[in-house]
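Lecture notes, continued. The same structure-token format from the folding unit now serves as the input rather than the output. Read the line below as a description of shape only.
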């Protein structure tokens, strides 16, 4: 149930994000979710795509520093308090959230959150027991 996330190290220069996204697009790879964190000198682009292994090869071939990381994708009912409930379940089970970002999909009434946890297996178990939906790779890559 893990989703493969691409993490790309970027120099903080104009045009670097365009270069990465154009390489992905030219390879016929579709973006599903994107997060960019930066400092004054560099950034980390985190991307969920429909073909992560292909995207990694394309980016490496172009000389970019890239890594594949296992994350989970959680589907939550888009109602007040549902996100808080999910985070509370993780905290009660001593599961640390390292980072997260959200995206929308084609199912109205559902919000999606990508989570990097210190213990993915325990996080999946706890979230499943709380009633949250853990998305499969097919769910995410085929949105």
């Amino acid at each position: 149930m893990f989703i493969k996330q691409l993490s790309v190290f970027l120099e903080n220069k104009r045009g670097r994000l365009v270069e990465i996204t154009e390489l992905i697009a030219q390879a016929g790879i579709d973006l599903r979710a994107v997060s960019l964190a930066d400092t004054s000198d560099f950034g980390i682009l985190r991307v969920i795509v429909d073909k992560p292994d292909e995207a990694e090869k394309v980016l490496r071939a172009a000389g970019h520093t890239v890594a594949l990381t296992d994350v989970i994708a959680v589907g939550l009912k888009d109602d007040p308090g549902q996100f808080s409930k999910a985070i509370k379940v993780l905290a009660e089970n001593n599961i640390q959230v390292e980072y997260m970002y959200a995206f929308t999909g084609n199912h109205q009434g559902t919000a999606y959150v990508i989570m990097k946890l210190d213990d993915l297996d325990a996080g999946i178990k706890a979230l499943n027991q709380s009633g949250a939906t853990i998305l499969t790779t097919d769910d995410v890559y085929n949105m």
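Point for the exam: The chain has two domains: 3-69, 70-141.
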